[in-house]
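Help!! Second protein's tokens look totally different from the first
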Amino acid sequence: MDFLDPKKQKRHKIQLITGYILVGIALILTTTILLYQAYGFGVDKNGQIIQNGLVFISSTPNPAQIYINGQRYKDDTNVRIPLPSGQYTVELQRDGYGSWKRAITVEGGSVEHFDYPFLYPSKLTSAAVKSYALKNRLSTQSPDRRWLVQQNSESLLRFDVYDLNHIKDASKEIALPDGVLTAGAAGKLELEQWSTDNRHVILKHSFQKGDQQTYEYVMLDREDPSQSINLTAKWGINPTKVELRDQKYDQYYLFDQSTGALSTASLKQPQPKAYLDHVLAFKSYGDTVMLYATTKGADAGKVSVVMRDGQDSDVIRTLDAGGTYVLNLTKYSGDWYVAAGAANEDKVYVYKNPVDMLKMQHITVPVHVLKTTNPNYIEFSDNARFIMIENGSKFALYDAENDKGYAYDTKHVMDAPQSHATWMDGHRLGYVSSGKLYVFDFDSANSRTLVAADPALLPAFTRDYKYLYTTAPGATADVPSLLSRTPLRTSSDL
């Protein structure tokens, strides 16, 4: 019996050990190869070891053909492409659409995501939704992009509400109750801010009172307009600026520019309560966080930029006094990003987690400095990845994901009365130039002139970005104003 033979037992044991060793070596080699592949290492056609980067490319609409340095790639979007380190030109094409194109730099071991390319139809065809006898004075879209509130130009009190989730349905007409506006149907309404409940919107009513131009704030309840109220009458004061606290319709920050007083109020307790003084500019976040510029505690000729969270306050930066100030803050990927600057300094400083930096190093150092001439507007993109400052056609942006900055001049003159561009989504900007909506990627690439639009009325996109709504002058004197819908897909993709 072989299992009783010592020599055969020894030989069998050696074979087992040898097999285990070979399997172990194979596992180590396989793991090593997979690890190196994960870090982008490979072998080129000449047998040389190279390190690739990974590029993820997707598109709207999907799929689209991919061309790298002019050569057709074997797969369409969405796809992961390993590329050796270097510079490339990537172009996306799809029948019926204009191409999307940009230069990219790939570094060995890096991972790049291009999940934002948007292809516009080669030919755009608009259809009339509704004509208006008089020029519209207000058009605004809810934060969730579902509701479009269009002022019915026949009366300051009346509005058409469109549910963009059901584009074939007729609009619903609503009206502010009599007595909500001090001057009745006279004057002009402007957007102040939507609540994130997508139901309540704060409007600023400007009107003539005697020989003076004045204003007041009202809250329109889109769902139940009978619940709309005059906020100025509730508060008993008329602030220069109103900001919703935590973007809730019933909680407010009230700012008096002339005195520098910042107060809080609510519908339940409308009597304003003092919050801060000597304030020059401010921007809130959530329920307790406030970024503001103040002369209080600052040296002569200086202004302090303070970040306050509850009862804790920290000076983030000191700026020169005497100008206007642009401030904003948000959270991106769990980190605080704070931007602050003085317009007369032609720059805005961007900080990442500045309070944590103060606690650890007793100093704040910006991750980037945005520069443009006399910036008059600052805003984060819809996905909070980009922070943009602007003056007319001049832009400067910071990309928090890639720690990279951009500065450019689109050369497209902005039509009055616009004061700034708006974010189309998380990666694109737009404004009206020469009577048409002009859109472009965050880095100014892939610009496109779309359709006729009124610079006084913001365009509206459906949540899936399949349709664009714009208001523009009508073609005849009988139709001075026309709301139109433009498909942003070809008919086969709708």
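Here's the second one for comparison:
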Amino acid sequence: MADISVRKLRFSFDQPIDFDVSDEMLGSMLPVLGLSMTMPYLEPYLIRSMQLAIREIRDEGLVEDARRFSQQEGHHYRNHARFNERIREHFDATSEQVGRELRAVEAALDADYQRFSREKSLRFNLAYAEGFEAMTCSSALAMAEEGAFDDGQLAGGEIWPWHMAEEIEHRTVAFQVYDTLVGSYPYRIVFGTWAQWHYVSYVARFARTMARGLGRRPGRPQRSLGRNFLRRYLRTWSPFYDPSKIELPPGVDALLQRYSELAAKGSAEIPAS
């Protein structure tokens, strides 16, 4: 059984998003915003898949991990839904056309995930969940190691270190559920990689739409972060990949402890930055 805490936190997003940044920073910022736009659709889909998987799992420890995974994801997407309102407000105010295009991408993504839940097999949906979690855990680990959370400059502020730290914390769950109920390495690689392509293509669609609305050409993101992510991501392709054996970068445990303490204080909103 993994050590997973469910932290009920609520972030405030009182300030408008500042898009007056350099082209290089914009190149990092827009994919992050695009990722946030996916969360109210992706994470309920993951939760639905876990709920179906729980019915088939006989290991009570893994059942509890899957429940806590789902509870964490539920808190994630609710906060992202509130942050996304700020994103839409900006583009609705500056370009009604771009605002409509963002909503169209959201609707298409939601329709995909509803269709997957309705029509695809459990093993497909678990391979999708594992592929997504392997990729995002690699990204979260790289961001933690490169200090991407340290300067507080990510749009959305503290929602990101909280979310990414919990992605690292529950990194074993989707893999163990998949391994228990499916277990096929070739299937994991084929359909997990397809899932990653599917997901990243939507993040890119959101980012391109926002860039068009801003009338900007974003610069290239930080290269060292990209190299770190690629190194970690390629390891997930190994038939010996096991996320429980990943050594965590310094600072992750401190982040998790910080958010546990904030959650213990009650329901006060945490400023986004």
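Reply: Different proteins will give different token patterns, so don't panic. The chain has a mean pLDDT of 93.
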